[in-house]
Amino acid sequence: MKKEKLKILLVDDEKEFVESLSERLGLRNLEADVAYDGEQALEALKEGKHDVMVLDLRMPGIDGIEVLRQAKERNPDVQVVVLTGHGTEKDEAMAKKLGAFAYLKKPVDIDHLIGAMKKEKMKVLLVDDEKEFVESLSERLELRNLEADVAYDGEQALEALKEGKHDMMVLDLRMPGIDGIEVLRQAKERNPDVQVVVLTGHGTDKDEAMAKKLGAVAYMRKPVDIDRLVGALQNAWKKIKKSKRAMDTLIMASAFAQAGEREMARETMKEFMEENEDDK
């Protein structure tokens, strides 16, 4: 049985932005209704036809937090993704407490937004021997729809990577036992596709050069701005997903060609190329 499309409600008083977002979702075969304020949103939700609401916080009249509160009281099953350009950490904590599934900030990567709506989470392994720091970081990433596991040293990290479930690793350099550079080296040898962001408070220029040579996609220093870190992870995840889509497309096009469906093969490749143009 074919799975039904997600029914999406976009709520934002910035008309040009929300209409553009609706069009971009349409290009990805996702249909979205639009509400320009909290009152319209709550009225639309009465119909009970929406699975997901993408919700701004700062709006005239009923603000986003109150819309979220009332929406979850009336329909606990509706999935809410907060998307805002003006939220605070207090807003973020309140949104999560009220049941928001994800909290994203503008400007948003369209693939990350779609992943949040579909409950797709990038899986991140945080590797750092500073337990309080890494556990706090894990909680903050969870609020942004990232699934974060924790390893407190290099041995734990390499053991966790054997399971092959992590897309990304955020890696400290100075740790007891196996240091971060060696973890990076072994991780890329075992799984070249894993994306590694180095996050350290004690690295040198030499460490940075070596990390990038070994395949780290980014090198950051503590204390790090959480949005900058999330941005680096989103960019890496987008490359992973694009690579997977490219492989799937080539396999599908090849299968069509081998079956004599050359027109279907050409159309499959054409659609993939057009999608990539839209992402630029």
List the helices and strands and how they pair.
Elements lengths: L7 E4 L3 H13 L4 E4 L2 H8 L6 E4 L8 H11 L4 E6 L4 H9 L4 E4 L4 H8 L4 E6 L3 H13 L2 E6 L2 H8 L6 E4 L8 H11 L4 E6 L4 H9 L4 E4 L4 H33 L3 H18 L1
Helix pairs in contact: 2-3, 7-8, 10-11
Descriptive account of the structure:
With 280 residues, the chain is α/β, with parallel strands linked by helices. The protein has 11 helices and 10 strands. The chain has helices at 15-27, 38-45, 64-74, 89-97, 110-117, 131-143, 154-161, 180-190, 205-213, 226-258, 262-279, and strands at residues 8-11, 32-35, 52-55, 79-84, 102-105, 122-127, 146-151, 168-171, 195-200, 218-221. The mean pLDDT is 86.
Question: Quick recap of the structure?
Answer:
With 280 residues, this protein is an alpha/beta fold.
Structural class: alpha/beta
- Report the total helices: 11
Main sheet strand line-up: 2-1-3-4-5
Indicate the CATH topology of the largest domain: Rossmann fold
CATH class of the largest domain: Alpha Beta
Poorly predicted regions: none
Strand content: 15-25%
Range of helix content: 40-55%
Order of helices and strands: EHEHEHEHEHEHEHEHEHEHH
Rg for CA atoms: 21 Å
Any idea what the CATH superfamily of the largest domain is called?
Response regulator
The assigned CATH architecture of the largest domain is: 3-Layer(aba) Sandwich
Major sheet description: 5 strands, parallel
Distance between the termini: 34 Å
Q: What's the overall geometry?
A: globular
Count of individual domains: 3
Number-wise, the strands total: 10
Give the mean pLDDT.
86
